[in-house]
Design brief:
Blueprint (H helix, E strand, L loop, with lengths): L1 E4 L8 E5 L5 E6 L4 E7 L11 E7 H5 L5 E4 L7 H9 L6 E2 L2 E2 L7 H10 L5 H14 L2 H6 L2 H6 L4 E5 L2 E5 L1
Antiparallel strand pairs: 1-6, 2-3, 2-6, 3-4, 4-5, 7-8, 9-10
Helix pairs in contact: 2-3
């Protein structure tokens, strides 16, 4: 499975778009022209927690002039209809998993991956933590937050639950 650049998504696709700031924004395709994603009303991020919610928007609003990528092949354990149904259950909610948006523990990737495959995880948060820890020479800190565990156990599934990294066997 890998993300490929594609202009027209299908219902249930896991989408991501790389923003100029260097991060990926994630969503679930409802159709080829609509997307559900955890975002702010005027962009992806906001300092106002009440402005960050799960909404259904146009594909263009999701893409914001960037080229989206789609995870291919479709590999969810859920049907395309079920993926969309799971996402629609959260539309207009300020909360996902009972919590507001949090860049590290409850972001757009956690939401989209949960709808897609049932695991609320953010690979870019884990990757970013590894890069920061390595760049700062913080092996002890990296171990404390579970980053070394992720590196050592790449074949096992890791999920962020709350503020803790847990290993699923």
């Amino acid at each position: 499975m890998e993300f490929v650049k594609k202009i027209v998504p299908q219902k249930g696709d896991l989408l991501r778009v790389k923003r100029k700031a260097g991060y990926y924004h994630f969503g679930i395709a409802v159709s080829e022209s609509r997307v559900i994603h955890f975002t702010a009303s005027q962009g992806d991020l906001s300092n106002d927690k009440k402005d960050l919610k799960i909404i259904e928007t146009s594909f263009e609003r999701f893409a914001l002039n960037d080229v989206p990528e789609i995870l291919e092949p479709f590999s969810s354990k859920f049907s395309r209809d079920e993926v969309v149904k799971r996402a629609k259950n959260y539309v207009n909610s300020l909360l996902f998993r009972g919590k507001p948006y949090n860049f590290i523990t409850n972001n757009c990737e956690h939401f989209a991956r949960y709808c897609y495959d049932g695991e609320a995880k953010s690979e870019q948060v884990l990757t970013g933590a590894m890069i920061v820890a390595a760049g700062l020479g913080l092996a002890t800190t990296a171990t404390t937050i579970g980053v070394k565990k992720v590196i050592d156990n790449r074949k096992k599934k890791d999920v962020i639950e709350g503020d803790n990294l847990i290993e699923i066997k």
